[in-house]
Amino acid sequence: MQHFIDLILPIPIQKTFTYTVTEQEANFLKKGMRVAVSFGKTKMYTGLVFKIHTTAPTLYEAKEIHQILDETPIVNELQLQHWQWVANYYMCSLGDVYRASLPSAFLLESETIVYKNETFINENELEDDEFLIFEALQHQSQLTIHQVADILGKKKVMPIVNSLIKKSAVYIKEEIYEQYKPKLVKYIRLNASYNSDSSLNGLLEELSRAKKQRKAVLTYFQLATSKKPIKVKTLSEKAGISSAIIKSLEAKNIFETYEIQTDRVQFSGQENDLKVLNPHQEKALSEIKETFKSKDVTLLHGITSSGKTEVYTKLIQEVIDAGKQVLFLLPEIALTTQIITRLQYYFGNQISVFHSKYSINERVEVWNNILTQQPKTKIILGARSSIFLPFTNLGLIIIDEEHETSYKQFEPSPRYNARDAAIVLAKMHNAKILLGSATPSLESYYNAQEKKYGFVALNRRHGNVQLPKIELINVKEKYRKKEMTGHFSDRLIQLIQDALNEKEQVILFQNRRGYSPIVTCNTCGVSPECPNCDVTLTFHKFKHELRCHYCNYQRAMPNSCAACGSNTLDTKGFGTEQIELELKTLFPDFKIGRMDLDTTRGKFGYQKIIGAFEAKEIDILVGTQMLSKGLDFENVSLVGILNADTMLNFPDFRAHERAYDMMVQVSGRAGRSKKQGNVAIQTYNPFHQILQQVSTTNYTEMYKEQLQERWQYKYPPYYRIIKITLKHRDYIKLDSGVNWLFKALYNSFGEHVLGPTAPSVARIRNQYIKNIIIKIPPKQSLLQTKNQLNNIKSTFEAVKDFRPIRFIIDVDAY
Predict the structure, then answer these.
(1) Which residues contact 11 (CB under 8 A, 6 or more apart)?
(2) How far apart are CA 339 and CA 312, in angstroms?
(3) How far is 422 from 355, CA to CA, in rounded Å?
(4) Average pLDDT, stretch 206-226?
(5) Are 400 and 436 in contact (CB under 8 A)?
(6) Is the pLDDT of residue 334 over 80?
(7) Alpha helix (H) ranges present in 489-644?
(8) 773-801 as b/e, with b when 16 or more CB fall inside 10 Å?
(9) What's the CATH fold of domain 469-513+576-709?
């Protein structure tokens, strides 16, 4: 009887693929193990075993597998169920979810390598293309298939390579590279023959002339009193000797070295007692536990600085005591650096962290530790991708700042929302979910009002400090009265000066990086644009260059206008870099820091800036939306928002809600420890209803008003949204494709189809973009809508002209 396995491959194709295995392999393999298989003509892939069976495929002959890569499964049953839910709900392939979930070191890929056959001499019988490859191999020992394709300038090169193989001119090999390398630390011990006192005395006499070697041995004895293994590095540092001395002692068989595999990231720390909660926090905690009895999901609406983290720690402690794991989700890597320090203080080394700033090897170690249920994985702290880790006994998922858009993945597929996917994951594990935020998303708040979620409010700031005083500054009026210095009003400068005089710190918020978003010629009005995208280039003064924030194209700042030759180039608008430079001239005696994507690129970029600000080495910190999320600085007394209007005038149905969230969150960084803080918001329109609601921190009024608009214009939480994006280099082909698609969708869904429209940036990386939106009414079946959409997509892709057009489906695209 033949045995077969169905594999998930890390490619964007909907189905699994069947391969044949021997009976012994079938008995050894388990669901969730990896195998290397060849797929297509040139590639080896890492497939994941999804099913083991005896039914042969009908449409193709099953190939054999190349090799088995695991002894035990690296993905568990619950994970696979969760992946299937993500693939079905977000309308993507299981392969996409597989690729997104596993650290890339697990996905071994190979390439066909072409080698020259040294015994081949008959060059005359080679065709032109064949000779080109053979000649290239005279200069290089080997070529990859991609290099062969570059040399010939063709995509299909395998027929030519096969022809060379038949003529015995070349031979090929598949090479697979293992990317993960465990970290080995060298330790040292004394040779067993020196265990007795007499042999030790003899050893010391023997080394009486070699002073440094004798010193190394004596230092070893000092260190050995602690009864812990001794690192080679520690011995050489303590004894003040070089590694050559240790090597010579090793050669004399006095010392032996051995290696122990260790994790690259270690969190040490004493486990301290948890803080005693104040009465308001205590009440919130008991209410959360009460709602958990009847509801799986609870929303904690706690105002900024109300001490939500302290409430979380109490819940975490209870779940750990019950022997279960806790997943703590955060929207921004910047936040993890602060929360790690706080949780380490209470839970010592029971914490693991997982996010994209960690290296491939570090992420593999976290994965393996969770798989083997190490004690250091009781609490997992991470950004959105950590919902895909191999949990076995989750007891609680905490989603901090649940309103954040960073939880939604927009590119590449799977385009999932970590908050919603985590709720499903918790259901599979019979775990509880706590959503925490000072400004909950409208959808979550609506679910709480509808009694779908539990709801708990925490309305007092920790230490009974009052919420900050919020002041709206009318920039229009200030410009008229000539009371502006650069981008600062006299009032904001006064407030900054007062805070600095009191030895307090200031945060300034401007949600745009770079120096200036637009460079214009004053003579002809032309702005330098990105050659690959329909967007003007942003000027970065530090490197004196123009940069595109969509495709990273960059070029030097020109001295004159490319259109008319005039040298009257001027900048419009402002970003964090310009604000930083202005502050240096306004407050030359104070230290100014900047926190945006440009300054936090390194692995420890966030830690350096946040650490310096906490240590009061920076007086004024300028930043983008990274600053708005949950960070806790006790000495900040003033927050300034330099331009509130850009957030309000954004073409998106959530623009007002997001602007409110962002401003209230940034404001919440002020006056967190002792006295009431100040917030200054500069705006051209101080009477805008959102700004008025921010100034009184009136969430319920904002919620009711926005909900009314959502009902009126048929948006979530009442209607669901699926966004379809088409991309192609040829505008005419894209246009005919999108018009065909719109008609097909309109025939199925009627007036609930909006479009086709071009986004505000209609071309990115030389690809033109068109969008169509489908709104799904409350009574309409989501499943049937998706099935119908999949049918239309299949028909669309069957049309030869439309096949090259990229078809992207984004479910809940907000």
Answers:
(1) 39, 45, 93, 95, 99
(2) 11
(3) 16
(4) 81
(5) yes
(6) no
(7) 490-501, 576-586, 605-614
(8) bbbbeeeeeeeebbebbeebbeebeeeee
(9) Rossmann fold (3.40.50)
- The first and second tokens of residue 610, run together, are 């946040």
What's the burial of 337, exposed, middle or buried (CB within 10 Å: 0-12/13-18/19+)?
Answer: buried
CATH fold for domain 720-811 = Alpha-Beta Plaits (3.30.70)
Residues 372-388, buried b or exposed e (16+ Cβ, 10 A)? Answer: eeeebbbbbbbbbbbbb
Q: Is the preceding peptide bond at 229 cis, omega within 30 degrees of 0?
A: no
Among 414, 670, 521, CA closest to 529 = 521
pLDDT digits (tens, 9 = 90+) for 70-127: 889 999 999 999 999 999 999 999 999 999 999 888 887 666 788 888 888 787 788 8
* pLDDT of amino acid 348: 78
Among 299, 327, 339, which Cα is nearest to 630's? 339
The residues, any chain, with a CB within 8 Å of residue 179's CB and separated by 6 or more, are 104, 105, 108, 360
The pLDDT assigned to 539 comes to 92
The number of beta carbons lying within 10 Å of the beta carbon of residue 629 is 22
- pTM (predicted TM-score): 0.81
Alpha-helical regions (H) of 571-722? 576-586, 605-614, 645-648, 655-667, 689-695, 699-713
pLDDT at res. 222: 81
- The label of the residue with tokens 């440094």 reads 212
pLDDT of 698 above 70: yes
At the fourth CATH level, the homologous superfamily of domain 279-410+423-463 is P-loop containing nucleotide triphosphate hydrolases (3.40.50.300)
Cα atoms found within 13 Å of the Cα of residue 342, Cβ hemisphere only: 20
Position 123 scores a pLDDT of 79
Amino acid at 120: F
Q: What is the mean pLDDT of residues 303-325?
A: 90
Q: Using the 8-state DSSP alphabet, how is residue 467 labeled? A: P
CA distance 605 to 610: 9
Confidence at residue 342, expressed as pLDDT on a 0 to 100 scale: 81
Indicate whether 613 pLDDT > 60.
Answer: yes
Given a contact cutoff of 8 angstroms between Cβ atoms, the answer to whether 45 and 39 are in contact is yes
pLDDT at 788 over 90: yes
Asked whether the predicted pLDDT for residue 21 surpasses 60, the reply is yes
Rg (CA), the chain: 31
Partner residues linked to 745 by β-bridges: none
Return the DSSP state at 274.
Answer: P
CA 607/CA 615 separation, integer angstroms = 12
Determine whether domain 3-106 maps to CATH 3.40.50.2000. no
Q: Count CB atoms within 10 A of the CB of residue 757.
A: 14
Other C-beta atoms closer than 10 Å to the C-beta of 5 total 26
Question: In this structure, what token pair is assigned to residue 459?
Answer: 């309305």
Distance CA 92, CA 77 (A): 20
Q: Which residue has the tokens 């096969």?
A: 162
Residue type, 554: Q
Q: Specify the 3-state DSSP secondary structure of 188.
A: strand
Nearest partner of 217 among 201, 229, 729, judged by Cα = 201
Residue 445 identity: Y
Q: Could you give the CA distance from residue 453 to residue 23 in angstroms, rounded to a whole number?
A: 50
287 Cβ contact partners less than 8 Å away, ≥ 6 residues apart: 456
As a whole-number percent, the residues of the chain with pLDDT over 90 amount to 47
Kind and range of the H or E run holding 554: strand 554-556
What is d(CA 24, CA 3) in angstroms, rounded to the nearest whole number?
A: 10
Q: Between 772 and 512, whose confidence is greater?
A: 772
Identify the DSSP state of 430: T
Mean pLDDT of the chain: 87
Beta bridge partners, 8, equal 48
Decide: 580 and 598 in contact? Cβ < 8 Å. no
- Distances in Å between the Cα of 760 and the Cα atoms of 13, 48, 757, 770, 782 are 31, 40, 9, 10, 29
pLDDT of residue 129 exceeding 60, the answer is yes
* CATH 2.60.40 assigned to 183-262: no
